[in-house]
Give the backbone structure.
Amino acid sequence: MYISCLRALFVVGSLLSALPAVAQLPAYLPKPTDLTGVAAASCAQAHTGAAAQRPSYASLSHRQKMGRYDVTYYKLDLNLTNTSRDVSGVVRMQARNSGQALDSVAFELYTSLVIDSVVVDGRRSLGLRRKGMGDVTVGLRQPVTPNTLFNALIYYHGTAPNSNAAAIGNALNTRVAPVYGVSTTWSLSEPYNAYEWWPCKQVLTDKADSVDVWVTTAATNKVGSNGVLKAVTPRPGSQVRYEWKSRYPIDYYLISVAVGPYVEYTNYANPAGSPRIPIVNYLYNQAALNDFRAEIDRTPGFIENYSELIGLYPFAKEKYGHSMAPIGGGMEHQTMTTQDGFSFTLTAHELFHQWFGDNVTCGAWEDIWLNEGFASYGEYLSLNRFASATAARQWMDQAHSSAMSQPGGSVFAADTTNVSRIFNSRLSYKKGAAVVHMLRYLLNDDVKFFRALRTYQTTYAGRTARTRDLQRIFEAEAGRSLQYFFDQWFRGEGFPTFSVRWNQVGSTVYLATAETVSMPTATPFFATDLDYLVTFTDNTTRLVRLPQTQPQTSANFSESRTISSISLDPNQWVLNGTGPVERDANLKETTNLEFIVYPNPANAQLWLANFSGTTAEAEVIDAVGRVVFRQRISAADPVLQTSVLAPGLYHLRLTTPDGQVSRARFIRQSE
């Protein structure tokens, strides 16, 4: 949802340019809002506000009741207009009972909506109990036997709530669009609010296998929804029924409606290896189509590009599309995004959600960055492909600036009762995108990076995933544990700032890099590689990549050409603050000597291959800078006992009696 090394950018550009050609689009000159993040902030804000102060999800006991069955299918057969929030009709929920008999069915429906009756497997319910804002429990005349399918028909009517604040109280909304003067009714159910307009089970991990959405409305309207439009059936009283059908797994909050007197415009994407994909667009009127057609026509190229990078558009057998509504940005409803207009980055963002958020949905709202951070990174990828590497770099610079505009804050959204926190533009969107970019830098190989994204999509297609699932896939590509990375950047807080001193003595270059952090009590250290761009007096350059294994790290390398300057992280791979990079004529030696350890990764023991001293004190430091183990090492037995360590990345510091310090990095793997 988007509501109100030697591998630098030139390498990214060369990799992308080697991909098969996508549909030819007009050259794109980015607008300021595409690069400054203003659209992201305003769109995220539309999901927050006063409504975020009260939770709307079901009580724990009610969620436990709903956990007794798994939804397989929803059919919404509703009556809607484009001028009011009135809703009536019947919802069919087909589900499979778990391993115990079911004597009641629990679901959610907002308290102001009237339930006329509930029929389960052809039998009208004994009665129902409503509690809180939306908990509904229906007693059954005959229990559902274990491990069997059952059908519940829920007949209801009423007016959807409206609080004049986003997300809660506006899940079904009606408004006249500014400029175009067209009234539309649309849904926006994320994160907990589908129950405000239809009876459902709001549990992320329980995707329905399929959904039908039928909406009866005035014959002057069109209705946009999920999947394929199978029929438009005339009904009495100058009414029509739009019958949409989707046969892909879908989460509750991605089921949608949009009703209005739309003008339809269809274009097509032609990704390699796939039949052409229709892109069905419902616009307010001809004036809106005239205004936005050029931007809408970018969508096929976006689909083709994303399909090449991370796998075929996941709903290729059905469609993609847009329905216009004055939503204040966009919402990635599965196969038919709702948008209030069309800009380059908004359209790119919402489309990338079809992979990250729709095909693979975050398994808990704590992991919302898996939806929003990746969708934001889709903006970066599209700018790089269709605008320029410079535009993409400007976008990433702004993302970093936003993420570092405050010292703290975690990508992990701990407080999921707070809608404002879930959809925090700075953390879930911008810092999330920066974390994706750093995973790309960590792998140092675009083939591996995009393969990891494709593996994530194929492994969890039609399902939900957590951050730990993504972590395992990237660890497989990296060939080592990345627990330290996710501890720092996903659950940790803040960011590092680096200052560099350097000197050249003869053909040796000395570097001393000091790291400070913005939230030392939360994340005292960030372990990362860093790029140093060395510029020579003849204006040639060299990129050197070195590890930052400690808050104070020294290194040296050979270089005979005369250096004029050094800059740190020139291609903005790492989320970091700007410190001084200065020449220090007094820097003439380094005590940061690297030594060889094996096997690496290690299990119970780690051997120090080139330890030549008599004795030394070994300290093992974890990824956030804490000393977690100490051991005396001797020349007779240069072995570190690592069985006491948890799996992860560690730094080993060896100090001899005369004060000489040597360092190495190693991974303790699971046995």
Q: What stands out?
A: The domain at 496-583 is CATH 2.60.40.1910 (Immunoglobulin-like). Confidence is low (pLDDT under 50) at residues 5-23, 48-54. The first strand starts at residue 69 and ends at 79.
